[in-house]
Amino acid sequence: MLYGNKIKAAGLIAGLLIALIIMVLSVVLGYTNTSLKQAIEAYTAFNGSNEHLIIQLSRVPRSLVGMAVGISLGIAGVLMQALTRNPIASPDIFGVNAGAGFFIVFGVTFLGISSIQQFMWIGFLGAAVAAGLAYALGSAGQGGLTPVKLTLAGAVMAALFASLTQGMLVTNEKALDEVLFWLAGSVEGRKLSMLAAVLPALVIAWVISLLLSRQLNAFALGEDVAISLGQKTVVFKLAAALMVIILAGGSVAIAGPISFIGIVVPHFARYLVGNDHRWIVPYSAVIGGIMLVMADIGARYIIMPEEAPVGVVTALIGTPFFIYIVRKGIFQK
Asked: What is the C-alpha separation between 263 and 45, in angstroms, rounded?
């Protein structure tokens, strides 16, 4: 664990430098290997070569998309785990990603939507519906809301929306062709225009999440304690939940439902900086971006010359970690 604010700040700066290096590697590595010099010349001395086109149209956009989505999912995981006091809370475990995915597939299948702006808004709606249903179901019955009940409710919502999504795709072959690779979670083939459509909303959510980090510390002490400290917990929870919806919905709209980043990343951040959310949130953002871009690089090599969806790689990383959390006994009522 890093002790002292100066050391934590230095660690954060180091993380940003690592993130920059990983993004550079993402630009130059792949089936068609290129060099850093070629990457620079693609923008300073463009000659129309295959390498320059790949860098401009594929590698740089997917690197930027991967970093933005990783940042968003990392922060969303922190917010969900803090709000629910559940160490395995994340947008995918609680069905938020599945809800956003279902609504987007519904829009493609029955409404004919095709633009990323439409994907974004219907993704936000799906994320909000799934989150609301999971919370309502987890709060029902004797004893009110508990981590176990909320997790089970989220699993039910994830299974429900996944089943409905598969049902629609079985009956619509055209929609299946359009969204199958996207549903596995991928940043391949994403254009800068797609990122530009969702980036303003994501950046606003990043900033607000950072501003909420101090209140997360008070809320983590217990809702009664937070109220006694003057926190308007209802407003705070609504604001934090809205940020989760924006971050998860925007991420799903551009990259599909990518799993496990939201679970794994906050735990790595806590291991490094402790339980102070003023540091957990920015560290989770940086680690999330690094992890997703690294997973995307790995996805290029697993079944080369083909590419695996990045969601498959993150699942391979996250599943053992998920099992470790449960077996260690962190997940309790």
From this structure: 42
